[in-house]
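Please check this chain.
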Amino acid sequence: MSECSDVAIQATCDDASLCKRYAVQRGYWEDKYIGYMVQSSTSRKQPEISRGYYARTEAIWKLLVQFVSIMEQKCQIVSLGAGLDTTYWRLHEAGLVPHGYFEVDFIDVVTRKIRCIGTKPALRSCLSDFETQSDKSCLHCGAYRLVSADLRDILKLEDKLISAGIDFRLPTLFLAECVLIYMAPDKSSNLINWITDKFNDCVFINYEQINMDDSFAKVMINNLKLRNCWLAGAQACLSKQVQMNRFLDNGWLNVVCNDMWNIYNRLPDRQRIERLEMLDESELLEQLLQHYCLMVAVKDTSDLGLEMML
């Protein structure tokens, strides 16, 4: 399968950001910073979409907080394909900033985010030394490090992270949200393997599609093709087991994977958000969430208690 164009991949960043902004506007969760990153969304989103983003955001947030708390902030987070994500600012507000928080994305996205941060005092005030540490392709401000890199080029990615101050000795959590599926399986496997080679203690949270060989998935794939967006890594997303095998085969010792429908139904705040917008029936929501998963992989060489996250 052809790889998606970089421009088309970056367009998915805007789509996701607008959906998150809309859900926040409707009260699904609180994020006082997303409004500085993304303009107000005027077009209505389907309730199924907002509920899906709620489940995704809440589940990942709980895992991030758990990781930083277990490590007592003596750790790092690396967000791969971070886009316009505001997690760093939410962690800062909660007093849970890790030793290092790294974001990686294409240079156009990074440049845009740097410009946005630089013009928004509410964002800039959470960073240190913004004026003296920034340029058009990276931003190094205390714990927050924003770098441009192509995840398919491991050598350059490593160089960029080293320049940004990554510490291979610290426990490190990697986060990817609908990122690996745009990479050919050999490229994503190289990335996954590189992480286990470099870090003794690490966690990988992967939010991504699954069940990509049924009729529902084919509709999703065809809709993306119309936007010149090809899912080059779809073969690694055929099932939960296939997702897990990709990590188990590349040095990760413990892996769990749950579909988002299962996760959604276990979230404690579900009844509140279901009152925000009514659904005539839940069949479409169930189908949608059964085609996404949250996978957690752990390598805990130093026995730090990271397996509690599984």
Remarks:
- The longest strand covers residues 201-209.
- The chain has a mean pLDDT of 94.
